[in-house]
Specification:
The protein is built from 15 helices and no strands. The protein has 408 residues and is mostly helical. The protein has a single domain, classed as Up-down Bundle (Growth Hormone, Chain: A). Helix 2 (47-75) runs antiparallel to helix 3 (77-95) and helix 5 runs antiparallel to helix 6 (135-164).
C-alpha cells in the first residue's frame, strides 16, 4: 500500500502502473489513425469528414481535463484514473462496432472523455509520492508508456488490421487491456491517496489561474502538441496518400517514428535530472531542452515539404526524437510550479489547452488537404505553430521554481 512515507523514495510499482496505463491509453487513442485508410474507404468519407473523426477524441479530451484535475485534487487521483480507464476501454470496443460517421464521432467523444483522466491523475500522484529530484525521470517513465503505446499500437494494430480488419483490431485493443485493473486494485485496494505528511496551504483555482507560468506552459504545450497531433492522426494517411507507401510500410515508418519519440523522451529526462543533480540551474536546463525541441520539430516538419520520400522518412524520425525531448518536461514543470497542493488542477488546465491542438490540427489538416490536394501547406502550418512554442518557453515562461502558495 502507498502511504505518506513513500514520499521518501520513488514508488516503482506506482510509476510502472501509471506508465502501463499511459501505454494502453495511447494504443487506444492512436488506433483510429492506423485504421483510418480502411475506415475512410468503407464509409466513403471525404478528407474533411475523416478529419472530424480523427479530431472528435480531442473535442472531449481537452475540455474535460480541468474537471478531471479538480476531481483528482478533491476525491483521489487513483479513483478518477480507474473510472476513466474503464470508460475509454469500452469506448474503443464500441468504435469497432460503429456503422457510420455519426457513431464513429460519438464513440471517439466518449473515448476522449475517459482518457482525459490520465495526465491530471498521474501528475497528482507523482507530485504527492515522488521527490522533486526524481520528477523528470519519473514523469519521463510515465510518458514513455505513452510513446511505447503509440509504437505498440502502430505495429500490433497494423498486424491486426492486415489479418483481421479494423473492427477486430479496435475490439481487441479496447477489451484486452482491462486486465490492467487487476494489479491496480492490488496496489491500492480500497484506500485513497494518502495526504502529505505535513499539511500545506492549498491555493484556490483563481490563484492558480493568475500564474504566468501556467499560461506559458499552456501556450508552449499547445504548440508542440499541434505537431504531435498532426503526426498521431494524419501521418498514416500522409504516408499512404502523399508518399505512396503500402499499409505495411506505413505502419513500419509510423511505429519507428514513435520509437524515435521514446528515445528523445528518455534522453530529455536523463539530461535534465543529471544537469540539475550536478548543480546546474533548473531554469536553464528546462528552458534549453524545451527550446531545442520546439525549434527542431519546426525545422523537421518544414524539411518534409522539400525532400523526397526517403528524406521525408528521415525528417519524420527527427521530428519524433525532437518531440520526445519535450514530452516529459512540461508535465514535470507543472509539478514543480504547482506542488502537490495544486498539481492536479494545474496539469488539467495545461493539458486541456495542449490537447486543444488535437481539436484543431486534424480538422485544419483535413480542410487544407481537401483544398490543395497535398500535405505541404498543412506541414508548414504545423512548423509555424512549433516556432510559436519556442517563444513561449524562452520568453513567456518565468524562472523555474516552486510557487509559494502561502496566503499573503
Amino acid at each position: 500500500m502507498l502511504t505518506a512515507t513513500t514520499q521518501k523514495r520513488t514508488p516503482i510499482a506506482l510509476v510502472a502502473l501509471l506508465s502501463f496505463a499511459l501505454l494502453i491509453n495511447y494504443v487506444d487513442r492512436g488506433s483510429i489513425g492506423i485504421a483510418a485508410p480502411l475506415i475512410q474507404t468503407e464509409f466513403h468519407l471525404s478528407p474533411s469528414q475523416i478529419g472530424w473523426v480523427l479530431a472528435a477524441f480531442f473535442w472531449a479530451y481537452a475540455p474535460m481535463q480541468p474537471l478531471m484535475g479538480w476531481l483528482a485534487d478533491r476525491i483521489g487521483a487513483e479513483r478518477v484514473l480507474v473510472s476513466g480507464f474503464c470508460i475509454w476501454s469500452i469506448a474503443t470496443v464500441l468504435t469497432g462496432l460503429a456503422t457510420g460517421f455519426a457513431m464513429l464521432f460519438a464513440f471517439r467523444l466518449l473515448m476522449g472523455t475517459g482518457e482525459s483522466v490520465a495526465y491530471p491523475s498521474a501528475a497528482k500522484l507523482l507530485a504527492t509520492h515522488v521527490e522533486p529530484r526524481h520528477r523528470a525521470r519519473s514523469m519521463g517513465s510515465v510518458v514513455l508508456g505513452a510513446i511505447v503505446g503509440l509504437t505498440v499500437g502502430a505495429f500490433l494494430g497494423g498486424w491486426l488490421l492486415a489479418h483481421y480488419g479494423w473492427r477486430a483490431m479496435l475490439i481487441t485493443l479496447g477489451g484486452a487491456p482491462l486486465l490492467w485493473l487487476i494489479p491496480w486494485f492490488g496496489l491500492w485496494g480500497r484506500r485513497t491517496t494518502a495526504a502529505p505528511a505535513v499539511a500545506q496551504p492549498e491555493p484556490t483555482t483563481i490563484a492558480v489561474l493568475r500564474q504566468r507560468a501556467l499560461w506559458a506552459g499552456m501556450l508552449g504545450s499547445f504548440c508542440i502538441s499541434y505537431a504531435f497531433a498532426f503526426c498521431l492522426t494524419w501521418m498514416p494517411l500522409y504516408l499512404v496518400q502523399e508518399r505512396g507507401m503500402s499499409l505495411t510500410t506505413m505502419t513500419q515508418v509510423a511505429g519507428s517514428t514513435f520509437i524515435a519519440d521514446g528515445l528523445g523522451l528518455i534522453l530529455s529526462a536523463w539530461i535534465v535530472d543529471k544537469w540539475i543533480a550536478r548543480g546546474g540551474s533548473a531554469n536553464v536546463a528546462y528552458k534549453t531542452v524545451l527550446a531545442v525541441s520546439s525549434a527542431g520539430v519546426a525545422a523537421s516538419l518544414f524539411l518534409c515539404t522539400i525532400v523526397g520520400p526517403m528524406g521525408a522518412v528521415v525528417a519524420l524520425l527527427a521530428t519524433g526524437v525532437l518531440d520526445g525531448l519535450n514530452s516529459p518536461l512540461w508535465g514535470s514543470l507543472a509539478q514543480i510550479f504547482a506542488g502537490p497542493q495544486a498539481s492536479g488542477r494545474w496539469m488539467g488546465m495545461q493539458n486541456s489547452v495542449a490537447n486543444a491542438s488535437g481539436m484543431v490540427a486534424p480538422v485544419v489538416t483535413g480542410y487544407l488537404v481537401q483544398q490543395t490536394g497535398h500535405y505541404s501547406l498543412a506541414l508548414l502550418v504545423s512548423a509555424f505553430v512549433g516556432l510559436v512554442g519556442l517563444v513561449a518557453w524562452l520568453i513567456v515562461l518565468p524562472p523555474v521554481r516552486p510557487i509559494d502558495w502561502s496566503p499573503d
